[in-house]
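Narrative progress, year one. The postdoctoral researcher (J.K.) led the effort to move from monomer predictions toward full complexes, under supervision of the PI. The following entry was the first complex the group processed end to end, covering 229 residues in total.
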Amino acid sequence: DVKVTQSSRYLVKRTGEKVFLECVQDMDHENMFWYRQDPGLGLRLIYFSYDVKMKEKGDIPEGYSVSREKKERFSLILESASTNQTSMYLCASNSPWTASGSSYNEQFFGPGTRLTVL
Amino acid sequence: TQLLEQSPQFLSIQEGENLTVYCNSSSVFSSLQWYRQEPGEGPVLLVTVVTGGEVKKLKRLTFQFGDARKDSSLHITAAQPGDTGLYLCAGAGAGSYQLTFGKGTKLSVIP
């Protein structure tokens, strides 16, 4: 069974703290993604990675950085947390290939981390 | 930039009723997916449609991809409280790793 896990389900941090959100997938997927989800705004892509040590900015990268040192692990870093970063953070992974050929980019999501910045 | 418009944004219905959720775009997608997300959880893939005009059924859920591959619909027959959740459509562009997500339809099925 495919699995994406996130290090915390709930997290409370103070303004200015450095925050690390960890995501691990056990499906040997090449691609990993970080989104934030806010009411009325839907899912917005923060960063994604298509290979180890590779990263690409998504739609809202400001205030965030990422790290992918191993294929299975993708970390999201809030350098200096602010209250407007209070949100639900979702990690996802996929592979451009399936056993039968090209995939359709279906993404597998973790359970999410509800981050509150006070 | 590709956009996906979902409607309605909210839907509250009685158990046993039928409903349809729409996902529309001016862009062509190589595939389109539907996800369901329960409160406090991540989205879970329900189905992927690939071919224009394709219809897929998953028990009481029927998914259709428009002929021009720009829109899709999700129809639920005889809704049950277990169908409650946020339904998201997502489109994949040709050659792109990324998905374009709609903002979702929040469905509440009242017993």
